[in-house]
Amino acid sequence: PGRSRRKTPGCNNEITVNDKQAVLDDVLNLKNAIIRNEVESSFISAASPGVISLFFSNTHYPDFEAYIFAVADAMKYEYEAITNAGIGLQIDCPDLAMGRHIQYAALDTANFQKQAEMHVSALNHALQNINPDLVRLHLCWGNYEGPHHCDVPLSDIIDIAFKAHVSGISFEAANPRHAHEYTIFDEVGVPDHLVLIPGVIESKSNFIEHPELIAQRIERMAKRIGREQLIAGSDCGFGTWVGQAAVEPEIVWAKLAALTEGARIASEKLWK
Q: Where is the Cobalamin-independent methionine synthase MetE C-terminal/archaeal domain (predicted)?
């Protein structure tokens, strides 16, 4: 209910890129940090056309399809600026999951899926000049601490996410609402070109997961999709809202250390 009272930007004219320097500054800052810290790989996250359309209303374009594809055209610049610098691109797509109960709650599942297909088509339009090997997609049901009982099941959206022109898909798989969904991969096959990145630590809880639990989560996924198509991740980010840290920074680092140890334990078993 509070969302309806927020004052957010909206679209009342043709969409253009107003500040082309901002993303270049982000790229330069990250590249300098990579050099200083001798990091081997990196990524920058960017909003999907769909999630932009979710939060920012349209009063200019004649229909939603025209609007989301206009957003996609504008986002090409940011996406390509990141990947042209040799940095990985993570497309944050809460519109494909959270969008079900935020944007499309009035639709039945079939019609929501049609809309989600359009979101992916718009995303692919924006990514058309980018090597999919440089891109991953993040599915998110909303990085907020709430009941989440209206979350769309992963089984209703995973095949749609598979159509994105990306090489990896990360998704929530550690929190109490979605931790059971690894079993869908008993029946759902993963395309050969994709790596799955399930969350094995929560991003909304100050509990520090035990490394053995993390290892168990990794192993049960590996048994279903294969060890070569699996990377352990977190459910979502730890800095989604400016000035609102759901998890204390010191605990974030401890959770990431537990993830590292859990991955080591699982890897010893999976590669013995």
A: 66-246
Q: What is the rounded CA–CA span in Å between residue 89 and residue 19?
A: 19
Going by pLDDT thresholds of 50, 70 and 90, the confidence category of residue 38 is: very high
> How many whole angstroms from its chain centre is CA 194?
14
Q: What is the pTM for the complete model shown?
A: 0.94
Q: Which residues, 6+ apart, have CB-to-CB distance to 139 below 8 Å?
A: 93, 94, 96, 97, 154, 157, 161, 169, 170, 171, 172
Containing domain of residue 79, as a range?
2-270
Q: Name the domain count of the chain.
A: 1
Q: What residues contact residue 188 under an 8 Å CB cut-off, 6+ apart?
A: 155, 158, 159
